[in-house]
Design a protein that fits this description.
The complex is a heterodimer of chains A (330) and B (350). Helices cover 76% and strands 0% of the residues of chain A. Chain A has 330 residues and is mainly α. Chain B has 13 helices and four strands. In chain B, strands 1-2-3-4 form a four-stranded antiparallel beta sheet. Chain B is elongated, with a radius of gyration of 25 Å. Classes of the chains: A mainly alpha (330), B alpha+beta (350).
């Protein structure tokens, strides 16, 4: 168990390292350095940057030093929670991002939970009633979910909502709560808007999970111990839920590690179509405007949060599956 | 294997659809009847025209002419059909000149009109905001998107087979390192990252350079899965007797890999590649949809769908969403085909 845990921790740390390097590359890729773009942006809007200020900025970011020193400095600042200044908004990046990061994670995690909640019962049903009408419907919906990119689904639903209900179904808050401070009423409003984007994001993952769950459970159901249990006169419900489902659940739990990055990715595009106040639209605007500190920070934070989520799901796997827990103690 | 594939009905349908789409790729210029970038403000956002097939009891396809004017209140262009003006259509009509397969110069197109310029009068699927004919653009977009998917999967295949092969054949430390890299790549949310890389492409690059760069970026997504498949096959084949026999007979490693091991898992690779292709196409479509992939004047499915990005545009001109249909169809077709191939290649798998 310790070996498993330490392997996971090391892998998570390596991943965070890789993400930070890639984010730094994104910040550095556009021609010219941050300071010259900053000066250009300030003077374009009629402002003025003094020579002294330039010197201070250059020293702080270490732009006269080799690249790896710049990277380390940037990492040092990031660890202290200072992400630099957004060129477009002329405010610290952390302020610009604000609540959006958490809303992104709320949407993503809700989508993962919904994926589970849908895939588990449907998967069990599909396997137990193989080749029934319900099984075919589940397979069909699954294929659609697999084939239709989530942003396209969002587009079509938006269009249908507009045409037949004459309502804008986008957004995460009603107009009056948009800028309001957090309150119970606002949370309730969020909860009312959450289902649609969550469902759109969850559909693709659900399709995949149903197929995995169905295949796993079918394998288990044909094993002799199930026949024994049935011969012993256990109720059908108990025969299925007590052991086969638990065994089939294992690969199910391990896919969650890939599900979260997938959902976070999807949420970027879906947010844009549905106009959700997540980091998605912000990231896109930052990239188009070459506001690289903002963009790089968003990529970094999203990546790190995803890794943390994946790590937590690994811990959950440890709790679900005794085979991993007992590994190495033998 | 072919026999087993035939039993999979959905896969047969899927592969026929795929072949159909690649035929469109080959004949895109022929199927289109207007140059893809030809725009005209006088006919912006025109709704799809209905083709009337029968005239006076004979099969003689025609469309009605139209007149456009600007609504003084909403400033929107409104078009009224002119039932007195019939424009008859002809199969294999003359149109704008092009080179078939890039070689044979011709100006024949599948469909055209008699008497007037085809570009001014025929709009099977309507026009976009700049008054460009959607049908013709869709043909060219199909070509771009499907070719970019194919190119992306080729690069991904090369990387996957190379790294997966090294990983599976040598094992040990190299294997562990490559597996860790794959795990890391798979636990990073890809879209933000690829968006960042795509946005960092210099603005002054030519279409060709952007095309190539986008292909590279999307192929970075697909290679890990392929590498996993190849590695798995290598690991299990390494233990087989025929590999050991070849080794004892003194074959070189390259020879063992190329003439003994690769043929025995070629079908797996083909199946995995077919399943990786739709992911490539979706990636390109998403990137271009967000405005960070291919840029106009290049035409791809994503570029076309970009115009359908907001509800207002969709409410006024729902036909802009038509390019979604081929995208979904082709992805489904590839998935069915790939599933069938995989089952045929590995009946005991899963």
């Amino acid at each position: 168990m310790l070996a498993y845990l330490s392997r996971r921790v090391v892998l998570a740390l390596l991943t965070v390292g890789a993400i930070s390097v890639l984010s730094f590359v994104i910040i550095r890729l556009p021609p010219g350095d941050y300071i010259s773009s900053y000066i250009a942006s300030v003077s374009m809007s009629g402002g003025f940057v003094s020579e002294q200020e330039v010197q201070v900025l250059r020293r702080e970011y270490g732009l006269d030093k080799p690249v790896y020193v710049q990277y380390l400095r940037w990492m040092g600042m990031v660890v202290q929670g200072r992400f630099g200044v957004s060129l477009e908004y002329r405010r610290p990046v952390s302020e610009v991002i604000g609540d959006r990061l958490w809303l992104t994670m709320v949407v993503a995690i809700a989508a993962v939970v919904l994926t589970w909640a849908l895939a588990l019962p449907i998967g069990i049903y599909s396997a137990v009633r193989q080749y029934s009408l319900g099984d075919y419907i589940a397979t069909f919906v699954g294929f659609i979910g697999l084939a239709v990119p989530s942003f396209m689904l969002a587009l079509v639903l938006m269009y249908l909502g507009f045409k037949y209900f004459n309502a804008n179904i986008g957004g995460l808050f009603s107009g009056e709560f948009d800028l309001a401070p957090w309150s119970l009423a606002k949370v309730w409003d969020l909860a009312k808007h959450l289902p649609l984007p969550t469902l759109i994001l969850a559909l693709a993952g659900t399709a995949q999970l149903i197929r995995i769950m169905r295949a796993n459970l079918l394998d288990e159901l044909s094993k002799p111990y199930v026949v024994t249990a049935r011969a012993r006169g256990l109720s059908e419900r108990r025969v299925i839920l007590k052991y086969p489902v638990r065994v089939a659940l294992n690969p199910f739990a391990s896919t969650i590690g890939y599900l979260l990055p997938y959902v976070v990715s999807g949420s970027i595009i879906v947010s844009l179509v549905l106009g959700l106040p997540t980091v998605g639209p912000l990231l896109l605007r930052a990239l188009v405007a070459q506001d690289m500190f903002l963009a790089g920070t968003i990529v970094l934070l999203l990546g790190v949060l995803t890794v943390v989520g994946t790590f937590l799901s690994d811990l959950m796997l440890l709790w679900i599956d005794p085979r991993i827990r007992l590994e190495g103690t033998r | 294997m072919r026999w087993r594939f035939r039993r999979h009905k959905l896969a047969i349908v899927g592969s026929i659809v795929v072949i159909f789409f690649y035929t469109v790729v080959l004949f895109a210029d022929f199927l289109a009847y207007a140059p893809p970038t030809e725009s005209e403000a006088q006919r912006s956002l025109l709704a799809p025209q209905g083709i009337h097939w029968v005239d006076h009891g004979r099969i003689d396809p025609y469309v009605y002419g139209f007149t456009g004017r600007r609504d003084p209140l909403t400033l929107k262009r409104v078009y009224t059909l002119d039932p007195t003006k019939k424009i008859s259509l002809r199969i294999f009509a003359h149109g704008f000149p092009y080179r078939l397969f890039g070689l044979i110069p011709t100006d024949r197109h599948l469909i055209g009109v008699v008497g007037a310029r085809t570009e001014d009068t025929l709009f099977v699927l309507g026009t976009d905001e700049q008054g460009r004919d959607l049908w013709s653009r869709l043909m060219y977009a199909t070509r771009t998107s499907l070719i970019i998917g194919l190119a992306g999967v080729t690069i991904a295949l090369f990387l996957g087979v190379l790294l997966g092969g090294i990983s599976g054949f040598y094992g040990g430390g190299v294997d562990t390192a490559i597996q860790r890299v794959i795990e890391i790549l798979r636990s990073i949310p890809t879209i933000p990252l690829w968006l960042g890389l795509a946005a960092a492409l210099p603005n002054d690059w030519t279409i060709g350079q952007v095309y190539f760069a986008i292909t590279l970026i999307i192929s970075l997504i697909g290679w890990t899965e392929l590498a996993r498949v190849v590695r798995g096959r290598f690991l299990s084949l390494r233990e087989e007797e025929f590999v050991m026999a070849a080794e004892l007979a003194g074959s070189s490693q390259v020879r063992i890999i190329l003439s003994h091991m690769v043929p025995s898992f070629l079908s797996h690779i083909i199946a995995a590649t077919t399943l990786a292709l739709p992911a490539m196409i979706v990636s390109e479509t998403s990137l271009s949809f967000l405005g960070l992939g291919l840029r106009p004047p290049a035409v791809s499915w994503g570029v076309l769908l970009q115009q359908a990005q907001n509800v207002q545009a969709l409410a006024i001109s729902p036909w802009l969403l038509i390019p979604a249909i081929p995208v979904i169809t082709v992805i489904l077709a590839f998935n069915f085909t790939g599933d069938g191939l995989r089952d045929a290649a590995d009946p005991y798998g899963h």
